[in-house]
Design a protein that fits this description.
The complex is a heterodimer of chains A (336) and B (318). Chain A has helices spanning 2-5, 9-42, 44-74, 81-97, 102-128, 133-155, 180-202, 204-214, 216-221, 226-252, 261-274, 279-299, 308-322, and strands at 170-173, 176-179. Residues 1-9 of chain A have low confidence and may be disordered. With 336 residues, chain A is mainly alpha-helical. Chain A has a two-stranded antiparallel ribbon. In chain A, helix 4 (81-97) runs parallel beside helix 6 (133-155) and helix 8 (204-214) crosses helix 10. Chain A has 13 helices and two strands, in the order H-H-H-H-H-H-E-E-H-H-H-H-H-H-H. Chain B has a domain at 25-232. Chain B has 15 helices and two strands. Chain B has helices spanning 8-24, 27-53, 60-78, 82-104, 109-122, 126-129, 131-134, 148-171, 173-183, 185-190, 195-220, 232-245, 252-266, 279-293, 297-305; strands at 140-141, 224-225. In chain B, helix 2 (27-53) packs across helix 12 (232-245). The chains are: A mainly alpha (336), B mainly alpha (318). Chains A and B meet through helix 5, helix 6, helix 11 and helix 13 of A and helix 5, helix 6, helix 12 and helix 14 of B.
């Protein structure tokens, strides 16, 4: 395995280039953080919106990370990611209805999501993987419709209720009301991202997955089972999606088949904002987007809640047009 | 690879069948057949964009929404003749298509897919915001309502006209430019194709077709234009239809339209899942299976069967 770990010159150059990108970006992010901190001290509503935005942003970030994991490995955007997350949330609903406690159901659902993700990769994605991009996109679109149909068929389109995982407590910090649910959502999402990062950074499987994503051919030569790694990647993405789904449900108060459709768009915007290839970028992009949308919704009166989605679309479009590589992405040079 | 105008005999036969069909069908089936015609127009439009000029769009439901709302608003406010509103929808969506095509110039492959998907999700939100003019979630009721039979006639007449128009566009200089761009932008540009002009034009034409489809779509829903009629699923269905048809083939469009128009109804009667909500299960399953088994769509399947030369796969990200 040492051969993989030895940084090749190109990788080192890539690292240098990335550091070059990171400096201005981190200055901007630190500036934004200072702005948020000062603003929160100045105004209670500002602080409330910031905390709520961070919680929502963490959810966008985890779904965005799920998309990025798959995109990095295979350059595929999984349009069914949100629906898969929604379906696994229904699984949790069913488990709770069968008598499990919320957190038992939570972890059982994550395990089921992993199996589902792996199964989908093996059964439907692998056969088309090496065909055109459009074929894979259509397959994920087909999965979108299929999963949507399965859930509606099994559980119906009417709304369902799940117990609130963090209760309805609201803390008062000075004059700032902070919902326990927001704190919980933020912690669970960030914790799952950190666990994933540890997995990638410090385990053999994680190393294999990074190798398989970065240089599939070379990884295969040193004995990494690239195919298996891709399947595990889909499994992990499904787990992250399940976390996002389970954390979205309490914020919507009800469970219905359209649960994740708007969240998917926010996750797309977050992933593009962070740079489609950057896992850290996805999470940061999610947090930035969550806070930004909340503050804009609070202070710009033209942007009402109906315009939240179109506004996210505008963010996505502006990022794609001005800085397609996103905050953390590398600029790709196309040779002619 | 020029799109060939199918032999005159086949066209005449198809025209006769389509013309006589309504006399054999009940009102319900006439509406269903009209629905197929509507999808035909929409898929035709998407095929011009994705199949011929190589730009993917998951947002054609958005253009259909704009076309549909054009019809509903003109009919509500000015009592305009519905046929006339179809022409207006064509024009309005052509302009919107050009506007979307401009930023799309800088996007390709996955990024274009993302941006157009976001468009499809965003546009149905606008009626909710501007509810005074666009009717909110209840939608807009147009002034006149058409009967099933007239709907059928209008839809298929529009489909036939637009099919000929598409053929005329694609057979000449413009179509050649589109296909050159699809196969290689670099090669196209070095042989003198002005990329921005033709790529934007493809978006405009494609959106205009979708606009007419949207206009018909509103007529088919008893003259109601509602935001959730034009949800993201509609965009996905059209893309699926185009893929099943086989991108880059005018022939397959009918198969694609039949597929998305009839399959949900047919699959209601499939045992086991044939309940009220089971249709999407069958639909999604068949979409996935078709893509696994016939990656070049129905047209590609036929071409392979006829031992025609292998078509280049369109739409591959550059």
């Amino acid at each position: 395995m040492e051969t993989v770990e030895t940084p090749q010159p190109t990788l080192a150059a890539r690292g240098r280039a990335l550091r070059g990108v990171l400096r201005p970006v981190s200055v901007v992010l630190v500036g934004a953080a200072v702005f948020l901190a000062v603003g929160s001290l100045q105004s209670e509503i500002f602080a409330q919106q910031t905390v709520a935005g961070l919680a929502q942003g963490a959810v966008y970030g985890s779904l965005a990370l799920a998309l990025v994991l798959i995109y990095r490995a295979t350059e595929v955007i999984n349009f069914a990611q949100g629906e898969l997350a929604m379906a696994t949330t229904y699984v949790a609903y069913q488990l709770i209805a069968w008598g499990l406690s919320y957190w038992e159901a939570f972890f059982a659902t994550l395990a089921i999501a992993f199996v589902l993700g792996v199964a989908i990769q093996l059964l439907v994605i692998r056969p088309v993987q090496h065909k055109s991009v459009i074929a894979v996109v259509i397959v994920t679109v087909g999965l979108f419709i299929l999963i949507d149909g399965l859930v509606t068929w099994k559980w119906g389109a009417d709304i369902k209720f799940m117990p609130a995982p963090f209760g309805q407590t609201v803390y008062h910090l000075g004059g700032v009301a902070i919902a326990r649910q927001d704190i919980g959502t933020l912690l669970v999402s960030i914790l799952s991202v950190i666990l994933l990062w540890l997995l990638f950074q410090f385990t053999k499987v994680g190393l294999g997955m990074r190798a398989a994503a970065l240089r599939p051919a070379a990884a295969a030569l040193v004995g990494v089972r690239v195919d298996r790694m891709l399947a595990v990647g889909w499994g992990l993405a499904a787990v992250l999606g399940a976390v996002a789904g389970l954390m979205t449900e309490p914020s919507q108060y009800v469970l219905q088949p359209t649960l994740m459709q708007p969240i998917l768009l926010y996750a797309f915007a977050a992933a593009v904002l962070g740079g489609l290839e950057s896992p850290a970028g996805a999470v940061v992009g999610g947090l930035v987007l969550g806070v930004f949308l909340n503050l804009v919704g609070q202070y710009v009166h033209a942007i009402t809640s109906e315009l939240r989605l179109p506004f996210a679309f505008a963010v996505l479009l502006v990022v794609l047009l001005i800085k397609p590589a996103g905050l953390f992405g590398r600029r790709t040079v196309r040779k002619v | 690879m020029r799109p060939r105008l199918p032999a005159l005999g086949t066209i005449a036969a198809a025209a006769v069948v389509l013309a006589l069909l309504p006399f054999q069908l009940s009102g319900y089936h006439q509406a269903l057949a009209a629905q197929v015609g509507i999808y035909f127009v929409a898929i035709l439009g998407l095929n011009i964009l994705t199949g011929y000029s190589g730009q993917i769009s998951i947002g054609h439901g958005a253009f259909m929404a704009i076309g549909g709302y054009t019809t509903a608003i003109m009919s509500r406010d000015h009592h305009t003749n519905l046929i006339l509103t179809m022409l207006m929808a064509f024009g309005v969506c052509f302009v919107f298509g050009l506007l979307v095509g401009l930023p799309a110039l800088r996007l390709s492959g996955v990024y274009l897919a993302l941006a157009t998907f976001a468009l499809a999700v965003s546009v149905p939100q606008l009626p909710l915001k501007f509810s005074k003019f666009l009717g909110g979630s209840n939608g807009i009721q147009s002034h006149t309502v058409v009967s099933h039979q007239r709907l059928y006639a209008t839809a298929w007449a529009a489909a036939a006209l637009l099919f000929v128009l598409a053929w005329l566009i694609l057979r000449g200089r413009t179509g050649r430019a589109f296909r050159a761009i699809r196969d290689s932008e670099v090669a196209a540009s070095s042989s003198g194709v002005t990329l921005p002009v033709y790529k934007t034009l493809a978006f405009g034409i494609s959106a205009a077709f979708a606009g007419v489809a949207g206009s018909l779509y509103v007529m088919a829903t008893n003259g109601f234009a509602q935001p959730n009629e034009f949800g993201v699923i509609l965009s996905l269905q059209i893309l699926v239809g185009a893929a099943v048809a086989g991108l880059g083939s005018l022939w397959g469009v009918l198969v694609g339209a039949l597929f998305i128009g009839l399959l949900p109804t047919v699959s209601k009667d499939v045992p086991l899942v044939g309940s009220a909500h089971g249709q999407d299960v069958v639909f999604g399953l068949i979409v996935v299976l078709v893509m696994l088994l016939l990656p070049t769509g129905f047209a590609g399947f036929l071409a392979r069967g006829a031992r025609a030369r292998i078509r280049p796969q369109p739409g591959r990200a550059s």
